[in-house]
Structure formats: C-alpha cells, structure tokens
Amino acid sequence: MERLKKGDTVLITAPAGMVTEDQIQPALNVIKANDWNYEIAQNTFNQYNFAYKYSGTPPERLSDLQWALDHPYAKAIWFARGGYGGVQIVDRLNLNKFKKNPKWLIGYSDNTVFHQHFNRRGFPSLHATVCKPLPQGQSQDTYSTLTQALQQQSLNYTISPDSFNQQGEAQGLLTGGNLSILYSLLGSNTLDHFKDKILFIEDWYENYYHIDRMLIGLERAGALKGITGLIVGGFTKMDSKEENSQYDEPFDSMAYEVISERFKNYHIPKVFGFPTGHIYDTRALIMGAGTKLIVTKDKVVITNNL
User: Fold this and answer.
1) Binning pLDDT at 50, 70 and 90, where does residue 163 land?
2) Same domain as 290, residue 163
3) 8 Å CB contact between 103 and 78
4) Cα–Cα distance, 128 to 16 (Å, whole number)
C-alpha cells in the first residue's frame, strides 16, 4: 500500500446508501487541500428504492466498486457513505487487478464489510469518516488523522484514561469495526480472523440488549477467542431518546457497562472512549496494521503503524 502524495488520485464510489453531490463536498475539499486528484464513479448519485434508499441497484454499485478496484493508477477509494448494501455485492468482487495495484479503502459503518473482507486477505484499510459527514459535522482531527494515515501510514494517539479500562500492554494487527456488521458476517468468508489481534468495535442506534446479544453471538462462535486487546469507540444514540439521558453522548456509559461485563473474563488490555465511530470526532485507524496498546491508570497510548 503506497503513501499518497501530491497529484495522486482518489476514487469516490457509493457501494451502499444513497448520497447526493452536495453531501460529498467536504471530502472533495479535503482532496483538493492535499493537492490530490479525484474521480467519481459513474453511478454514485443514482437512486434505487427497494425497502431502503440505495445509491443504485446492486449491479450498478458492484460495477462502480469493481471499476475502482481495477483502476490502474489510483491510490485510494473513499466510500461516499455507509448505510446498508455492502454485503449484497462483496462476494461478487474480483480482486485480481486489485492485488496487482492495491489501494486504500476508506470508510466506516457499513463499510466494515469491506474492511473485514480485505483485511482477511492481507490488505490493510483505513477506518475513517466517509465522504458524507454526520449531521453535526466532523472535527478537524477527523480529517487530519485521515490525511496523516494516507500520507505517513502511521498514527499515534495518547488519550485520557477511562474508568472501564483494563491496564496492560498488547500488540497485534488491528481488526474489527462496526459491531452490528461484524455480527452479521458470522459464518462467512468475509469476517476476519480475530485470534492474536486487537479488536476494535463501535456502534450507534442499537438497544443495549442488542449489544449484549451480538457480543454473545461472537463469543459463542469462537470469534473472540485469542484476541490480545480491545478498543471500544463511540457507542451513541442507544435505546430511545425518551428513556436515555445520554442518548446524544458519544460514549454511552450503559453501553460500556454491557461491553465491560461481556469482556470481564478476558484478561487483556482494554481501552474505552477512543474517539472514533458515529460521532463528531471520528479519528482514523489503520485496520490490518500493527498496533500496540499501553494502558496505564494515567493514560492510554496507541501506536498504529503499517
């Protein structure tokens, strides 16, 4: 995977939910500010309504993503948004040309499908904001860490401790993403192997018991066996706004209690409150990259380098 430099090309494609041209403008601004070029896939702004508003039919979305994977000189593919739809097309992707000219895949949420599929096959990817920002916008660090990862292939974070943390040190390749998507991939050849790796999870718009059910499902399937560390990002908009006083908070403490309880028998370093996910401050993480956690009572240090 190559570092991006001035003049390199970034491709934009929408493999899942519907997106409009004005919604990707923040991403175009970032691309232009870094003196990169861009190309937008042919069907990106299409609309197809079939029990969900997609950015095109499955064949259209597949064609666009295949075009991007096969592109002869582009260095990155930035997904326009998440939503739902990646799982409909992932099994029909042909990676032959991509293997000869691999590219960064950039996104999160539903794009966890592609992170997992490509990480499992040895290709790193970038868990970072999609082109379409959240309604409340995104922090400056959301974009600066994305840019740093693409240009330097290295990220280093020092964050404040959290009461749910478990101290210790761990190393391993980073895997994971959106918890709901990970759970949905159980039993497939897309879900990455978690053994000897550091697991990262985040989610939003879920019930507390859904979180518990998904973690139990992963555990019962053996997916969590042998993980060396845990990073927990944003868990927000949990349950109902009427009943949850923390509904709009980025790190819901009840969700964290559920996760902590489910991982209580895993004697590994655990980091809660990492700033990424469906939240304003969505910092980048290099999936499939060597990662080290140092968790003390005073701070957390995360080194994430390709």
Assistant:
1) very high
2) yes
3) no
4) 16
